[in-house]
């Protein structure tokens, strides 16, 4: 119970005039400021009903959650804003707090750096101190001599110029990616054929190289696709989250970036994948801090390579939910010269994704088409959530029964019923704002039919 008379008077006023948004907002902020967190949460929720996407109200609600250590709920509240990009920097800092609370240091560091690079005044030294990553480790290929640093690295780089990224061998191939036939075909032509048949390409005077920028709503399968492309090609896979690069210490980000490219070059053929690349390749004109502009320049220089052969056998893929923030310099030939849209799956693709997600589970007869029908606007990540939830319920049933109880259509339908698609509709609305009247070059042709449709 709130025992502050001024707040009680405000609450009473809000009760009498429930649709007065400024009043509710004021009350919620006062409650939050005075530490009445549960009451603040309730008031922010009420305000959100009146103004569903108001970033200040969302941020207030998320802060109330974070201060009550309800980190997952804070992230759910922030998700629609985060998915759109361009959110207020303080929202990024709140997301960083929530992610840290969930133990996801890397994503937390990324959100924090991205926010502070846009508005240094939201910085928080206490939070920044908790985001310092543990010392980086480089995974060397199997069979590399243990103990000694590789001979080709100068001694100084052993201590300072290590990439935090690791080399993986992807167990996936395109057979593990459901639907997306056009996307797979585009990647095949761009990435795989030149590597598999270099003579053919040479005959036409074309060199393998240049990168592909995958864009689309969050969770639609960009990372999965990149990993599958590496497996399809039999190439090593180096995946770089932005937290790997946006180092705490100004100046060392450039070194980390170079070390990451070098790591990929040492393991060619290699797919080098940059997730959330918009933070690294944002328009330089949008950046307030010169050190970020230097990082963009360094990225361009690495993509170009010191000479013609520098990136031979290194295929650079990048993913973004916000392609419109990317500096046009990245789209020049030899850089990310191909933009590939990774769309939300249609009903057939959803059924195929569900089939793939369920293939190693004990299954009864399952009608994947029926589940696909009730999961309109669900992307791959949402469908994975549905399957995980159904499996979880089944696991408990199996424990009770003392034997594995197979998953059925009904279980999946029940799990789907309680789930909500994340953000396709919001993403499409944002995309429409950015690209509807900016498609002179045809760069967004793939996206156009999707944003013109009703979601
Ligand atoms: P994004 O990088 O676009 O945010 P992810 O690649 O992380 O999305 O997708 C999330 C998860 O959804 C993946 O790990 C994968 O399990 C599943 N998924 C997404 N798309 C597909 C697909 N086309 N086929 C199979 N699984 C998919």
Automatic annotation (TrEMBL):
InterPro entries documented for this protein: AAA+_ATPase (IPR003593), AAA_ATPase_domain (IPR050168), AAA_lid_3 (IPR041569), ATPase_AAA_core (IPR003959), ATPase_AAA_CS (IPR003960)
Keyword presence, Ribosomal protein: no
Coiled coil: which residue ranges? Answer: none
Q: Which residues form the AAA+ ATPase domain?
A: 208-346
What name has this protein been given in UniProt?
Answer: AAA family ATPase
By its UniProt entry, which Pfam families does this protein fall under? AAA, AAA_lid_3
Alphabetized, the UniProt keywords read: ATP-binding, Nucleotide-binding
Q: Which family does it belong to?
A: Belongs to the AAA ATPase family.
